[in-house]
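Input/output pair, single chain:
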Amino acid sequence: MNEMKPLTRIQRKNREAILGAALEVFSQYGFRGSTLDQIAQAAGLSKPNLLYYFPSKDAIHAQLLESLLKTWLDPLYKMDPDGEPLDEIMGYVQRKLEMSRDYPRESRLFANEILQGAPRIHDALTGELKTLVDEKAAVIADWSKAGKIAPVDPYHLIFSIWALTQHYADFDVQVRAVLDADDPFPAAGTYIDTLFTRLLSV
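Output:
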């Protein structure tokens, strides 16, 4: 069986340029509104050169979503069942808010995919993501039953964490317009920390 040759430095650079450009284009225009010509132009490459690395727009999008899902799930994987419950949940909240601050384009890419019915990541949502959420929801439920945190529906707690933190990425323009602020995240972090601490404290 033939092994794939490792990419050269130039090939790695071009591939990264394509994925970076595609992330910018997809997060701005959505999958349907984006074209290979737009991605190639943003990457500073010709369209034939782009097609040397990826055979289609779908292939680029699939690669971005695959990488994104790993990044997206990592903060929840880090919630430790043996840790201090409130600290673990609030640590997750903080990590999710930091992701919205540091990866806004990725957040919008994910949101666009979900709004379209998740045609390209539905299997991952019902597979790896659901399995992980079920696992962590069981941990939260155990903490609640043991009286370590206030009674709470673990699934809707996770959903509310997603909604509150990802809002600052997906609706960034609206948030900054209303607040007239360059960086809304310090105040957001304080508010969200207070909100969930009060909700969960016993």
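The chain has two domains: 1-55, 64-200. The CA atoms of residues 59 and 72 lie 20 Å apart.
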